[in-house]
Amino acid sequence: MSSEYDPRQAPAGRATAGQAPAGQATAYAGTAPAQEQHRAGGGAALGFTWFAASLLVLGGIWQFFAGLAAVIKGSFFLVTPRYAYNISIHSWGWIHIGIGAALFLIGCCLFARQTWARVIAIFIAVISAVMNFLFIPKYPFWAITMAALDVVIVWALVSVGKRRA
What we know:
Layout: H1 31-39, H2 42-72, H3 89-111, H4 117-134, H5 140-158
Helix pairs in contact: 2-3, 2-5, 3-4, 4-5
């Protein structure tokens, strides 16, 4: 037996964090993983991921219906004669439907804790923000609101990995 001090080992008869003393197997069950998750930012990471996933699903539904409105009734949107990007309202509608479906599906994948979904979600949210920025002349309030929502989604997904120094 070694005489060196090891702080990870408890004195005889005493339990360390996450270990139950003899005869009390259920008293401390699950403490160590919860403490490790808390130290690693797991709770916040999960919260921000679910927040972003909720916004992705909600934003995807909104984008889809905005695109559907453009496809079904294009006269609802403002048509400017001298816009730098000459894209028809019908085309904008299909773009919104595609982006909306992608946002919705990626949000569902984040809820399912797919590891690849975080990177794809950031990419799709950035694409959506740029697309909404270009859509400002057609429907200003909606486009600015959706672009702001996309920025919040990116922030929620990117801020998960940050730790205090």
